[in-house]
Amino acid sequence: MDPIQNPYAPGAGQRPPELAGRDDQLRAFGIVLERVSRGRPERSLVLTGLRGVGKTVLLNALRSDAVRRGWGTGKLEARPDQGLRRPLSGALHQAVRELAPGGPESAHADSQQHVLGVLRSFAQRDAGAGAKLRDRWSPGIEAAPVRGRADSGDIEIDLVELLSDVGGLAAELDRGVAVFLDEMQDLGPDDVSALCAACHEISQAGLPLIVVGAGLPHLPAVLSASKSYSERLFSYQRIDRLGREAADLALTAPAAEEGAAYQPDALAAMYAATGGYPYFIQAYGKAVWDRAPRSPITAEDVAVAAPEAEEELAVGFFGSRYERATPGEREYLRAMGEVALQLSEDERDEIGSVPTADVAAFLGRKPQSLSPARDALLKKGLIYSGERGRIAFTVPHFGRYLRDQA
């Protein structure tokens, strides 16, 4: 089949041609936006799930919805080696510009300039007193810094003041602001605490500003460890793999746009291969399309193309993560994959976690001696702990990949 017409998009964070199985999340977010716009109380939102389930894609779709409704929006991605001030400043600068694009002649120009000045003070506080000009970073803001506002150096105090001012400007303009934060679990402890406190403050004040975060399955535990009230502060939505009907739609709808179709046994083979994970669906869909000689696509076409899809995933999806691990950490990962196979039906759970004691026993080591490797893998986002004493891969089918490599 013509590869130029191939409709599938297996890129990181790239929106698939058919965003199947996410209607409930899109509908719920539309209600949140409408309620906030009408001055109704509403919680910020947190999306959680494994790698490859489409959290970033959904985050971008929610942002697009907010933009269509006239909200000011900004997006950032948390990183373990970076504080919150600079990336958040850039995201909020964009949101404020979208919120009040009228320029110096607009009726709310003074309010906008004040907020931009506060934003600049917040951003530059990282530089410290006496910093050189090149270190006094600001996200392209021309407004003069507002001294004594969001520049105390205490991130919690500063973030509360900043978001209160941004939310106040949004209320003055009868608009809303939404900040979209990807990889939220990578925020540092102080930044997590500050963000929770700020969301709590703007919620109590009834300001039209929400935070939409996305992260790995242990993100709720990260937030709860920071502020006990975070369990009630955010609305948590678990993003999981697609059911059979939605997975079929993700394949058939784009194909139909190009005048192609799948035989029923081909769709069954695709679901068995992908497990319903959106990223895998796109990767297999692309490989099968390129290999299939004609429409309708058959189960035989899937079987022929599967090795190509698996090779692509082994390099780009699994391999890139495996390469980040040290030899000792890889040994731990492989042990997790083997232990998962040895668990009885009663010992298995829905996330595929394994007891840390069993991993240590498999390696013939004391659990304490494996703590450095386990902690390093947790920080690298390759594994997570859903409950005490158990760990799981953040990447679906990772155990199978490791066993195939062995």
UniProtKB/TrEMBL annotation:
Entry keywords, A to Z: ATP-binding, Heme, Iron, Metal-binding, Nucleotide-binding
Q: Does the keyword Iron apply?
A: yes
Drop me one GO molecular function for this one: ATP binding
Q: Which InterPro entries match?
A: AAA_16, Cyt_c-like_dom, P-loop_NTPase
Q: What is this protein called?
A: ATP-binding protein
Question: Out of the domains of life, which is the source?
Answer: Bacteria
User: What SUPFAM superfamilies does the record point to?
Assistant: P-loop containing nucleoside triphosphate hydrolases (SSF52540)
Q: Give one Pfam hit by family name.
A: AAA_16
- Domain (Cytochrome c): give its ranges: 171-322
Query: Where is the stretch described as Disordered?
Result: 1-20
